[in-house]
Amino acid sequence: MQYNPALDGVRALSILAVVLFHGKVPGAAGGFVGLDMFFVLSGYLITSLLAAEYRNGAIDIGRFYARRALRLYPTLLLVVAAYLGLAPVLWPAEDRWLSAALAALYVYDYALAFSHMAYTIGHTWSLGVEEKFYLLWPLVLPLLLRTRHPVGWLVSAFFAVTAWRYFVAVNWTWPQAYFSFDTRMSGILLGAIAARTRFKVSRPTLAIACVALLFLVAMPSLPTSHQIEAVTLRITLAELSAFVLVCHAAEHAGSAFLSSRPMVYVGRLSYGIYLWHFPMVLLLRDTQPLWVTLSATLAFSFTMAAICLHLVDTPLRRWRQNTWARAPGAA
Q1: Would you say the pTM of this structure is higher than 0.90?
Q2: Looking only at Cα atoms, what is the longest distance across the chain?
């Protein structure tokens, strides 16, 4: 796939919304919808990548899994190791080994959905949602692409998962509807639809989607039924708006704003920022002034993300490219 800098700009918008939300910044009470933007973008990128491989012969599943592991695991393991080292001092009441195991095995999503777990590295639940998609999609997508109407099946799956999340939210508990892979893969499916349809976005449609996202980020949860509202209508509207934004970015790689250098660089750092920012913001947000919490969190998470990108991820990517270029069949 040809690199598209505008998609990194979408990543930047997503992570900034999430950080502002976790920092309890006024005007960002709904910033959790940034994760829905991440899910749609992941569905788009991975489906585009795998579909391109499929068109060129077949999907090398082992190589795909290895690429994902080398891309995602090193930074995650560094965060888990830092948590294990600091937890006895900063979070002594937590079962740190259980939390570390849940994060490293990508099952924090179901742990939070069905039990009261410590949340210090519980933000890795979203990685669990995406990792299950990475494991299943290379197996499912070839079967889907052999059908006569793959987009029709994807649209049906999106509506089915959305209806399932609504059912779980109304009849069970909001954590089960919010954290679980089976209720949150609707955004990923919508991203897959974007990859297969290449939807052309008009300027009025883009404007409506951007206004909707700004509204969702700024709007606090409703006081009487905030759990149900947050995991039903708000997520669906965020997914649909992110669908429009991703389709626009895919079509306009040279977008002046999304592909600007600052946005692209923040987008490249977004994975590391997401992993490193949350433990720091938890330590500060209820004991320090907002400006201290936000400044320290941004400085720490950006620094650690840059270290991970330039000293861990980039060397590993170069090693992988050089090694696999010499051994094309090795996964």
Answers
A1: yes
A2: 60
